[in-house]
Every structure is written in structure tokens, then in C-alpha cells.
Amino acid sequence: MGSSSSPSQPLVPYGWDADWESEFAPYAEQGLLPGRVARVDRGLCDVITPAGTVRADTEFVVPRDPMKVVCTGDWVAVDPEGSDPLYVRTLLPRRTAFVRSTSSKRSEGQILAANVDHAIVAVSLAVELDLARIERFLALAWESGAQPLVVLTKADLVPDPVTLAYLVQDVETAAPGVPVLSVTAAHGEGLDVLAAVVGGGTAVLLGQSGAGKSTLANALLGEDVMDVRAARDVDGKGRHTTTTRNLLAMPGGGVLIDTPGLRGVGLWDAGSGVDQVFAEIAEVAEGCRFHDCAHESEPGCAVLAAIDSGELSERRLESYRKLMRENQRIVAKTDARLRAEMRKEWKRRGAIGKAAMEAKRGGLR
Ligand SMILES: Nc1nc2c(ncn2[C@@H]2O[C@H](COP(=O)(O)OP(=O)(O)OP(=O)(O)O)[C@@H](O)[C@H]2O)c(=O)[nH]1
Ligand SMILES: [Mg+2]
Ligand SMILES: [Zn+2]
Fold this sequence. Notes:
The protein has 365 residues and is of the alpha/beta class. It has helices spanning 18-29, 131-144, 161-173, 191-198, 213-221, 271-277, 279-285, 302-308, 314-364, and strands at residues 33-41, 44-49, 52-57, 75-79, 86-91, 97-101, 109-114, 118-124, 147-153, 180-182, 202-207, 246-249, 255-258. Helix content is 35%, strand content 20%. It has a six-stranded mixed sheet with strand order 10-9-8-11-13-12, with helices on both faces. Helix 6 crosses helix 7. The longest helix is centred in the C-terminal third of the chain and has 51 residues, at 314-364. The termini are far apart. The structure holds guanosine-5'-triphosphate, magnesium ion and zinc ion (ZN). Guanosine-5'-triphosphate binds at residues 153-154, 156-157, 184-186, 209-215, 228-231, 240-242, 260-261.
């Protein structure tokens, strides 16, 4: 059966391809419907299926594992039997996932978007650049498996082209291997490059509230689908105009996920992502005498030598250390939690074992 005659054809604008088709094949045999999650709220989700958008409940998808919670961008199998809401029966394995930790205390992973090819970090030029925050977003973006991209929004607020070029350059030093664009959504400036990126695959827009994510989404869509409201960010609290993550099909192809603003993102097991953000430091560190050099005061430290010679930036090293430490804390905490869970499981099994032995003994009596 050629893909042109596939009943899943209506899903192609949403990112359906031959690999998803074969991944879904066993569920198709069970008579389930493929679909992509466009929005999740209050335990229910909107799923785009060949039969149109349906409302579905996700209670059958291992609800106790936070990594298995259905999220925007997921491909799922929906049971066509039943009425509103239908049921999601399974979650197809994710190709990529943008995960942050929900809070530093509980250290649970929260998936912000699944199956994304491009992670767009939107940064407003209306406020002072915070390079450390950009580095943090980029670490998670690299870790997600998607290609990161930084979009500096509201470029109209920096009318001097020389100043603008410097700002872009500053961000570039914090983002090796990451394209950095400046755009003005209102005038459509810089949007052609962004549209080209978004046109292939799925992109997610991430960033602080008021960064202009929804304005960008509307500009790319060519119509006002997402609500946009004036930033009133003087008190630093912001107000979230967008409250759910929304998956939108672009008119020229490609899929965009608009997300609610994030005040910050906690790292979540993002060690290799952090290394990628600080690629130039990791490269120099290969020359350190000790393999596990912390670049603090060790003899033969190539990183400290490069700081002295001005080859590496001190700010970057500070930021690298900070994110590394935070990541190690999270990883250690997660391991502790996993260990605690395993102990609980052993106790439970132990109790079952004891009960079984007693029953046996009882039976022998
Ligand atoms: N000057 C200027 N203002 C812009 C531009 N893009 C967006 N804005 C303004 O920035 C404010 C916030 O825009 P939104 O698109 O709602 O921001 P958001 O990132 O979606 O915010 P949340 O949904 O709360 O996360 C609005 O007042 C927009 O009009 C731009 O290119 N230039
Ligand atoms: Mg928004
Ligand atoms: Zn070193």
C-alpha cells in the first residue's frame, strides 16, 4: 500500500511519516486510530486524527510515570470505540523530548514538548540580555535531541544596526553551533529564515512570558490564532498570555508548538547538553593533565591557562561550572529517589514473599 492511499494521509501536515506509520502498524491492526496530541489540559487532550480532532482521556497511559505523561507533540493510538472523550491507549516512543525539572525540591522531569526537530529559544531584545539563562535553555534544547536555535525578538526596539549586530554576536558567543537570528514579527523582518527552519519538521517555541512567542507563531501562520497581550513585565512577574502548549500546522508546511512562558528552566539530567553549550571549553579541557580536572586549581589545567591568556571567557567558565554543579545535584537526587523507590519495591516483594510462604506453611498444616 503506497503512502498516498494511506488512511493516515490527513496526518501528513502534522508530521506523520513512513517511520511513524511502521511504528503504528501493530496498533492499526488492533483497529486503533493514530493521532498527534495538539493540546493537553486537565487530564484530557485534543488529538488530531484522520477522523478529525477528538477529545481523549489519557488514563491508560502509565499515569504514575511523569516521563510517560502524554504531552503536546506526542503520537498516540486512540481507541475509536466510545464517545466523548475517547481513550488514548498507548504512546508511541518519542524521537525527542524537551524535559525540564519541575522544581528543585522534588526533582521530577516534566516534558514540555515531544517529537520536536527544532527548539527555538525566543529572547526579547526589549530587556537586557541574560546570557546565562540562554545557556540554560540551550543545554536542555541540546539534550532534547532537537537542533536549537536562538531567535532574538522585537529587533525594532534596537534601531541602531551596529548595536543589534553586537547583541547578536554576544549571544553567538554563548551559543556555539547554534544559529542566532534577530526578527521583528510586526514587520516580518527575519521571518523568512525562521519560516524555512519551521517548514521542515516540528519546532517548539520556548522562552519567558512576553518574549513574543505567540506573536511569532501568528506571523508564521499568517493569521491570529494565538492570543497576544501587551507585556506588563515591569514587576518581573509577567502574566502568562498563553496557558497551554498548542500544536499548529504551518500553511507552508511544518508544525509549530507554542508554549506558555517559562520563568526559568531547571536542568534535568542534561550533562551532555551542558557540554555542547560550552563546546569550546570542553575542547580545551581535553588538554588538561587530569582526566577529571575540575578546572579550579589543578596543576596542568589547560582551561585555566586559556582563561589567563584570554582565549576562553571567564564568564563562560563560571556559567559552565554553575550548570554542571546544578546538573550533578539533580542527577544525584534522582538516583536517590530511584533507589528509594527500589527499596520500596523490594519491601513490597518481600512482603508478598512472606505472605506466600505463610500461605504455603498454612497449606501444609
Ligand atoms: N515592538 C515589538 N513588540 C513585539 C514584537 N513581537 C511581540 N511584541 C509584543 O510583545 C508582547 C508579548 O507578546 P506575546 O507574543 O504575547 O509573548 P509570549 O512570549 O507569547 O508570552 P506568553 O504567552 O505569556 O508566554 C506583546 O505586547 C507583543 O505585541 C515585535 O517584534 N516588536
Ligand atoms: Mg504566548
Ligand atoms: Zn582543567
